Amino acid sequence: MEIVESSLLCQFFLTIWRTLTGAWQDSWVGNACRRFGQGLASCVKGSALCSVVWREGALSKSWEGSWVERLLSLILNLPGAFCGWLYKAGKGLWDGSLFCRALNGLGIGSFGLLGGFIALMLMVPHSRWDNRYALLGAMALFGIFALGNAARPENRLEMSRLGPHFTLFMAFICCGFLWSLDWKLSIRFVGFYLAAFLLCLLAVSSVKRYEQVEAVVITVVAGLTVVALYGCYQGVIGVEVVANQQDMLVNAGMPGRVYAFFDNPNNFAELLVMLMPLTYALFLNAREWRGKVAALFALGICGIALAFTYSRSGWLGFALATVVFVAFWNWKLIPLLAVLGVCAIPLLPETIYNRILTIGNTKDSSTSYRFAIYKASGVLMKDYWLRGVGLGSDVLKQTFKGYPPMFDGNYPIHTHNNYLQIWAETGLFGLLTFLGTILFQLKTAVKAYARGTDRRVKNLLAAAVAGFCGILLISVAEYTWFYARNMFIWFFLFGLITACAKLCERAED
User: Averaged over 328-339, what is the pLDDT?
Assistant: First the structure.
């Protein structure tokens, strides 16, 4: 830390920060914001709305220990129980075998394997990636967890942690396949959801201490930084301008949008938004200056790469993620953050500034085309609003062809909106359980943060929730699960939030 403090550059930024925060504390605007916040807090605390949000719902109360929860936990832990039986039956052979002892070690460190697999998933180029790798990897991790914990029956898959709403949502995913208009088109998406579910479950179950979840996060952020470095490289050397990715008239002069190891700049931006906020927590939690510098480096590289994607939804999502994290960390700084954000706008490069100005511009072809897709989706949903067409974008794309085409003669390949897409695939109850899953997760995270005592875990929880909120906003304008790797990271992030909430709960106990 002494090296950082003696650095002229760090001293310069520290001086600016201290000057701004000091001026904010003494200004009438800062005092007014504090008084407003105190008044708002006193009104909210004890209000009917707060009590409704804070109380545990009837479904949540009845979930843990219910026969449904016990049955599902039993089924999911059958492989582990079988491995435990094998261990007891041949304990002497198991303990004396080098291979079995190696498996035992892998089981203890399954959290590290999970982090490494997620990092590897991020770094594989699009041309070499196959979504079946995710399923194979998730099943391998599941097997290692079961075999490696054969001698530790207390290490089980913690299905109950994911909550009743998530379980109901996954049930309607299964129903979406069963009542699909075309099973052949839906079958591969069952594999996607199975891989995503296993990654989520392992993220929750494989960590028992803060150091373990920190190791997972550091490994994933390291992989993301490698990807972002390549994105920055593309931004420097330039990439080809793809006409169907940007309006050539409204965005005249804008360079090609970087995509790193992925298929599309928006896919890359979505991954960055989900995982970048984790660097905030790593910076705050780092005890040595090297850790703080590494976190800042990762944040800076990822931020530059995000700028090079020219993804407007990505920028908005990251802005929201930053606001959410600051709200958790110290909500009194939000007005200052807003002022700094407004002041930074004139300093932006011209191409980025012009791109920001096109947000909401209906003359932009990508914006107007979305509305054409929403209109076509509305026509289809009149017939399938209750049951949906079935699991996956393939069957939805096929169903669209039975309706009038859009103004250009083409048919949508998806609805360009996560919530509308899930509704179209799984029906009304699938949508309701999905929204319930999101709200329950956010509520659980806020309650765990408020009750937690370990500041390090709380910082990671806040960062994970921030990335989650960012992708939820992007999902209004994009179907973020169309690219399966984004879907896998979404579920991993969901599991990471649950794992941090679990650690907060255990620290409280």
Answer: 85
| Separation CA 506–CA 179 (nearest Å) | 41
Residue 71 to residues 41, 76, 77, 328: CA-CA distances in angstroms? 42, 9, 10, 36
Structure-token match 């109850």, residue found: 429
pLDDT in tens, 375-404: 999 999 999 999 999 999 999 999 999 999
Residue with the bigger pLDDT between 4 and 234: it is 234
- Torsion over CA of 481, 487, 493 and 496, rounded to 10 degrees? 140
Max CA-CA distance within the chain?
A: 74
Measured CA to CA, the distance from residue 127 to residue 290 in angstroms comes to: 35
Cα 272 to Cα 224, 401, 477, 489: the distances in Å are 8, 34, 16, 10
Helices (H), 331-454: 334-344, 350-357, 365-384, 393-400, 418-451
pLDDT in tens, 163-176: 999 999 999 999 99
**Single pTM value for the model:** 0.92
Report how far residue 49's alpha carbon sits from residue 407's, in angstroms, rounded to the nearest whole number: 45
pLDDT at 266 (0 to 100):
95
Q: Around 305, how many Cα atoms within 13 Å sit in the side-chain half-sphere?
A: 32
Tally of CB atoms within 10 A around 95: 12
Ranking 132-136, 175-179, 254-258 by mean pLDDT, the lowest is 254-258
Alpha-carbon 295 to chain mean position: 19
Q: Which two tokens stand for residue 409?
A: 């003669």
Under 8 Å between Cβ of 400 and 411: yes
The answer to whether the beta carbons of residues 504 and 454 sit under 8 Å apart is yes
CA–CA gap between residue 459 and residue 215 (Å, rounded): 15
Q: By three-state DSSP, how is residue 261 classified?
A: coil
Token pair listed for 421: 């897409």
Residue with the bigger pLDDT between 19 and 484: it is 484
Q: Enter the DSSP assignment of 392.
A: S
